[in-house]
Amino acid sequence: MKPAILAPLRHRTFRLLFGGQVVSDMGDWLDFLALIALIVYRWDLGPSALAALTVAVALPFAVIAPLSGVWADRLPRKTLMVAADLGRALVVFGLVFAPNLYTILALVFVRGVFSTFFGPARQATIASVVPQDDLLAANSLSQLSFQLSKILGPVLGGLLVAAVGPRSAFMVDAVTFLVSAALIVQLPNIAPAARTKEETEEQAPSFWREFREGLSYLIHRRSLFMAVASNSAALFIIFTFDSLGVLALRELGIGEALFGLTIASIGLGTAAGAIAIGQWGKRIHPFVTMGAGQIGGGLVVALLGVAVTLHARGTGAWVIVYMLIGLSAAAVFVPYGYVVQVETPPELMGRVFATAGGIQNAFLLLAPPLCAVLAELWGVGFVFTAAGIALALLGLVVFFLRPAVATQAATEDAALQTSAACSDVR
Is residue 74 domain-shared with residue 211, that is, in the same domain? Predict the structure, then answer.
């Protein structure tokens, strides 16, 4: 008997999508390392340049994604994904010749815009071609690909940058998008999901009406709203201390030799958690898993904060602690993707997924300035301790409220009611 986590690979469409993700995830981490190397080591720019890069990466997902989700539900998904991959390949190839930071920021922003179209179309495709029983495993495999590339990508990128320079990594990343497009073009034609009767009678449904439908469904679907709200809050809390990680590790006596291993251990923990959830996660309510992950992660982060405040010292023990943080992250993020997919009908998948991503990225843009202010006022240890406690309290709320996760049939009935309500408002 095959492991449950491998079940989605029985479906050819998912195999093609997953193959493209594995290749492009690896390329993205090569690209990320190359951008840092170019900005910091070649151009000798400081924190403001890195902050600008962070904003350029996140801004399209905060501003453009909720709108691009409408097009992800309107247009043929295979065509949209191939076009987005080709667009990203062209933009990343342009990074090879970027002469300054402003050009880099502009190209990174445009690449993000293409990604806002690709992501919702990909999620909607997975939800439509993978049976519901295999969706949790499919999300686990996606998280596994991301985390393993997070571990291997910087290593390979470091070797590539050292050998032939950072711009060569952009060339490799551009090729990965072309490979992804070549895989996706082999998919069967996947038309947008069928519309409701009211929408079918309308020859040209309003763009903004469709956008409102997605937002309204997200807000009024209790389990979906709970998933998006709690995940957004968790990401906001995480990013209030994430950028201070290097300072905390230095306070704990972790030197340069162990720094890379400690960071990689987060990816190892998340990968291990993704495998475990994909294999056995269907036996547990997804909100129980999410809440437990937030509680466990919060307690570990708070422990780190106390250790920093007390000037504790250690070596390998903190590698294990960071691995536990990664394990908790998998418990939070893998069930989240599953809940969004099973709670959202096919015709709304692009809009709901993109709007949820936009909300989360808006929170992410607010977190780094807050963490900088708190760290200046009360220190790194305080930020970790307070953030850990907040994350654990959020987990308790999620754990005990845990709304029911609906069947697909009930979900589609709710979508019809939402569409009717929007029609009445008009």
Answer: no
Residue 17 lies inside a defined structural domain of this protein: yes
Spatial neighbors of 103 by CB under 8 A, at least 6 apart, are none
Cα→Cα distances 90→27, 94, 117, 123, 356, Å: 14, 6, 16, 23, 27
Q: How far apart are CA 74 and CA 67, in angstroms?
A: 12
Per-residue model confidence (pLDDT) at position 192? 60
Say if CB 415 and CB 205 are below 8 A apart.
no
> Whole domain around residue 420: which residue ranges?
203-426
Chunk the chain into consecutive blocks of 10 residues (it has 426) and report each block's average pLDDT, rounded to whole numbers. Answer: 78 88 81 79 76 83 83 84 92 92 94 89 83 85 79 72 78 90 86 52 63 84 92 88 74 67 78 86 90 95 90 73 89 89 83 83 77 82 92 95 69 45 42
List the Cα angle 280/286/292 in 5-degree steps.
Answer: 90
pLDDT number for residue 393: 97
Domain final residue, candidates 167, 192, 217: 192
Q: How many CB atoms lie within 10 A of CB 421?
A: 13
What pLDDT does 289 receive? Answer: 94
- For 320-323, the CB contacts below 8 A with 24+ separation are 320/265, 322/262, 322/263, 322/265, 322/266, 322/269, 323/265, 323/266, 323/268, 323/269, 323/272
The reply to whether 197 falls in a domain is no
Of 401, 388, 402, 398, which Cα lies nearest the Cα of 296?
388
